[in-house]
Structure formats: structure tokens, C-alpha cells
Amino acid sequence: MLKFVEKFQEYACAVMLFFVVALAFANVIVRYLTNASLAFTEELIINLFVWLTVFGGAIAFKRKAHLAVTALTNLFPPKLQKAAVVFSALCSTALFILLLYHGYNLVVQEYVNKMTTYSMALPMWWFGLALPFGAVLLIISVVQATLEELRLLAEKEQANG
To answer: Which of 78, 103, 145, 146 could form an SS bridge with 157, CB 3.0 to 4.6 Å?
Structure first.
């Protein structure tokens, strides 16, 4: 199941990035040839970038490609390294829980107020769902990455005796 979710995230990012590039390219061509603009493309591109950001962030956590300062923590003894990993995970999880909470409230507000996008007149909550949905993906990714890091540190500790 986790492999499916991971691959789904990667494929979803690829598809969204393709549409972002295609829409931006189409808008440039239309502007160049007609001096007009496809206004809806800008709105769609921005909202797709939000989805790309949360999916990409989750993928980065799983691959340990997120920003981390390990030069100092690598000098710590293994028990302190584990504590640093857990502390980092707790801070990250707290941040993403806040994102989930505020993202959920944003979606509820957009839904209740029947807010729509300016040029496409689509419900804004469709795009707002990126925040709570992405927060859940990020929390799952943080937990997975933390468990993997703790496992590697335990193996390293056993190997060093």
C-alpha cells in the first residue's frame, strides 16, 4: 500500500508538472500570436503549483532530500543523534498538524461561503484541499522517514558495538 502511495505521488507530480508546462507554453504562444491572454491558465498554474509543492515535500521527506543540518548532529553520540531525529520529527509533525488544522478551516470557510475562482468560477475549496491533504501526506512521510532514520541509527550503533 505504501509503495502505491509513493508512486502515486510521483506520478501525480509528473502529470501536474506536465500540465503546468503545457498551460504556460500555450499561454505564451497565444500571447505572442494574438496579443491576448488565457487568463484561466495563470490561475490553474498557481493552484497546481500548490499541489506540486505539498506532494513534492512529502516525496522529499521520504527520500531524505529535505533541508537538514547534519554536520553538527553527525558528531553526536548515537543516543543523542536519535534524540535529535525524534526532536526534529516532533517539530515537523507539529508544523504539519498546524497546517492541517488551518488548511481544514480554510477549506470549510471556502465551502461554506461558496467561494469560486476568479476566471474559471470553480469552487476554491477544490484547490484549498491541497493544504490539509498535503499536511496528512507530509505527516505520514515524516513518520516514515523518522522510523527509517532511527532504524539506520540502531544498525549503526550495533555495528560499532
So the answer is: 78
